[in-house]
Each structure stands twice: as structure tokens, then as C-alpha cells.
């Protein structure tokens, strides 16, 4: 099974969510309802959905994907 990268900006945990790049499986991107976008100044495209990452992961689980790992910012002791 292929890997899918799911990412969002730190302050946008409600979406949009980046779900792929130009090499992503078009059938999976279609299933997620992703749109291919190229940001001004970038020479590459990404697929995005409006849903938050949690809903994207729920959809992917329904077709057999599972989360392998995750990461996020560390919370400092001084916060």
C-alpha cells in the first residue's frame, strides 16, 4: 500500500489539509475530494482538501490506510 502524507499548518488544524503532491495516486486524491494547487512562487503542486486532518485520516482508514507516525511542535516549559 502506498504512503500518504497528511499535513496542515500549525494554526490551521481545522483545515485546509495538504494530502499529496504531484506523485500522489489520482484515485486516492479523487476519493478525498482533493484539488491540485500551485502556490504563487512555487515550482511544484500539492493536493489540498478543506477538511481538518482528523477527517482526512478517518476517510483514509475506511479504504485500508493506517497512521504510521506523527509529529508536532514541542511545547516549551516556559509556556
From TrEMBL:
<comment type="similarity">
    <text>Belongs to the GFRP family.</text>
</comment>
<dbReference type="GO" id="GO:0005829">
    <property type="term" value="C:cytosol"/>
</dbReference>
<dbReference type="GO" id="GO:0009890">
    <property type="term" value="P:negative regulation of biosynthetic process"/>
</dbReference>
<dbReference type="InterPro" id="IPR009112">
    <property type="entry name" value="GTP_CycHdrlase_I_reg"/>
</dbReference>
<dbReference type="Pfam" id="PF06399">
    <property type="entry name" value="GFRP"/>
</dbReference>
<protein>
    <recommendedName>
        <fullName>GTP cyclohydrolase 1 feedback regulatory protein</fullName>
    </recommendedName>
</protein>
<dbReference type="GO" id="GO:0044549">
    <property type="term" value="F:GTP cyclohydrolase binding"/>
</dbReference>
<keyword id="KW-0472">Membrane</keyword>
<keyword id="KW-0963">Cytoplasm</keyword>
<dbReference type="InterPro" id="IPR036717">
    <property type="entry name" value="GFRP_sf"/>
</dbReference>
<keyword id="KW-0539">Nucleus</keyword>
<dbReference type="GO" id="GO:0031965">
    <property type="term" value="C:nuclear membrane"/>
</dbReference>
Amino acid at each position: 500500500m502506498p504512503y500518504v502524507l497528511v499535513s496542515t499548518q500549525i494554526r490551521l488544524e481545522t483545515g485546509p489539509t495538504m494530502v499529496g503532491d504531484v506523485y500522489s495516486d489520482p484515485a486516492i486524491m479523487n476519493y478525498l475530494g482533493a484539488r491540485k494547487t500551485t502556490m504563487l512562487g512555487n515550482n511544484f503542486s500539492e493536493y489540498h482538501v478543506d477538511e481538518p486532518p482528523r477527517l482526512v485520516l478517518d476517510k483514509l482508514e475506511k479504504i485500508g490506510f493506517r497512521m504510521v507516525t506523527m509529529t508536532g511542535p514541542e511545547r516549551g516549559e516556559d509556556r
